[in-house]
Amino acid sequence: MIELLTPTEMQRVDRLAIADGSPGIALMERAGAQVAEAILRHFAGARDVLVLCGSGNNGGDGFIAARHLAEAGMHVRVMSAVAREALAGDAALAAQAWSAPLERLSTDHGRPDLIVDALLGAGLRRDVAGPLAAVIDAVNTSGSPVVAVDLPSGIDGATGAIRGCAIQARQTVTFVRCKPGHFLLPGRELCGERLLFDIGISDATVDEIGAGTFANRPTLWQAHWPAIAHDRHKYDRGHVGVVTGGATATGAARLAIRGAFRTGAGLVTALAPAEAAFVLAPALEGPMLRIADTADDLQKLVAERKISAVVIGPGTGVGEGTRKNVLGILATDAAVVLDADALTSFEGEASLLLAALRQRPRPTVLTPHAGEFHRLFRGLLPDAGSKLDLCRHAARQANAVVLFKGADSVVAAPDGRASIADNAPPWLATAGAGDVLTGIIAGLLAQGMPAFEAASAAVWIHGKAAADFGPGLIAEDLPDQLPSILRSFVRPWRDDDPLRVD
Ligand SMILES: NC(=O)C1=CN([C@@H]2O[C@H](COP(=O)(O)OP(=O)(O)OC[C@H]3O[C@@H](n4cnc5c(N)ncnc54)[C@H](OP(=O)(O)O)[C@@H]3O)[C@@H](O)[C@H]2O)[C@@H](O)CC1
Ligand SMILES: Nc1ncnc2c1ncn2[C@@H]1O[C@H](COP(=O)(O)OP(=O)(O)O)[C@@H](O)[C@H]1O
Ligand SMILES: [K+]
């Protein structure tokens, strides 16, 4: 259940299910019944319930839920955006089964124990304005908790954007698969708690759509987790090289080094300018140190030391030196992670970077935060678009996996696949957290994990590490959280131990 379906894809799934013999009204009956079930479970103490129904099928779900709630003994009022005669199709059938009067939609809600928002769902087509916007404002200021059907009204299911104005829900009940708008901000925040229900549409029907957007969950990438065989030596577990800054700027690279080492790379080497050597040497124990003052030095070290993945950018400085080093590293056979200064150094000269990336056959991951993303891709992408759309465009343009960081980190691959994460707690936004992330990605790339899966896995693990640690986290804490998380992905290696006593 990890695919995320846009409203358009969801409509195609609905049509396929209907063509396969599940009538639309049967799907709507199940959807409305699930909404009522969720309310009876989570808001069991509610007595007065107000159901707001729109003019389409989202409203249809609302009529069905209203009937079940009334049958369960709640006092239910229904307000409808249109008169019964103006309803069509399945929504009209659903309204027929609600025999009590329909009130006209208004802002005069009183103070019910619960409001059910069935105004707009997947059919939102334009910005909400006028009387409907007034109703949404009244709901948001009423103080009553809101359960939204499918999506909080006003949230675009494809992008998570607020179209004019939107409902702030306590809980959102959705069906079949979540939508990108449930994961992307601000939509995710307005959903409140998200509940996903089956309404009898099979996985095979969803598979027919060939969705390319996924919730970032271990099931997305676990099958690609690097195996550790008994007979492996450290070189088989990959060698990560991290390019460092000068004497006063080595902290970021050290965070990346620790992230890579903890993720399971067999060797990690700091690739440092000579001036940083005496600062770095006492700060490294397991990781090694090699001096590289030029792009040539870096290229030679990557080849001689059999470095399988390189991180460049954290703390390396913005300018010509970093630009040359990046282009040098991109010409090697190593997998590459470009972050921070490695991206900003190409501001206004993105075509140089893109040209090098397009002819590169090896895995590359770019990890911009919003500022870096817009600086690098300014003028190269459509002016408008969701974080998901922009990230996909960027990955295609760059022929690289792009990780667009933030509270709703998106990873996109040049082939169109994308993942969206929702597990990062707000306290992960702390200086140096992104540096650790680059190390985790490189650690996985070095062990042979494909780039899209490695970047998605790293994002999820990074978010989980921060959530497990809790508030008060600083970037230095993240690497030490990794072992307990990684344990669940590493395949058992002592199953055949004949001396084991359980
Ligand atoms: N299909 C199925 O089998 C199943 C579907 N299910 C349910 O159906 C929902 C999708 O239903 P839907 O496609 O009818 O769209 P919906 O969200 O009700 O909105 C359309 C109406 O809103 C109106 N409208 C649009 N924008 C507006 C605006 N800004 N401001 C004001 N009005 C606006 C638009 O008016 P129009 O543009 O035509 O003027 C039209 O009347 C889905 O979310 C799920 O809950 C479940 O029952 C499971 C089975
Ligand atoms: N509001 C937020 N909630 C959760 N995670 C966030 C939030 N803002 C940023 N992050 C995450 O925090 C990390 C910050 O990385 P970055 O911006 O590169 O910082 P730095 O360069 O200091 O390491 C990224 O992994 C990003 O996804
Ligand atoms: K809704």
Can you describe what's shown?
The chain has 20 helices and 17 strands. The chain is an alpha/beta fold. It has two domains: 205 residues, 3-Layer(aba) Sandwich (Rossmann fold); 269 residues, UDP-N-acetylmuramoyl-L-alanine:D-glutamate ligase, CATH 3.40.1190.20. The strands form two sheets. It has a ten-stranded mixed sheet with strand order 8-17-16-15-14-13-12-9-10-11, sandwiched between helices. The chain has a seven-stranded parallel sheet with strand order 3-2-1-4-5-6-7, with helices on one face. Helix 2 packs across helix 4, helix 10 packs parallel to helix 20 and helix 19 packs across helix 20. It binds ligand NPW, adenosine-5'-diphosphate and potassium ion. Ligand NPW binds next to helix 2 and helix 3. The site of ligand NPW has 27 residues, from helix 2 and helix 3. One of its GO terms (biological process) is metabolite repair. Keywords: ATP-binding, Isomerase, Lyase, Metal-binding, Multifunctional enzyme, NAD, NADP, Nucleotide-binding, Potassium.
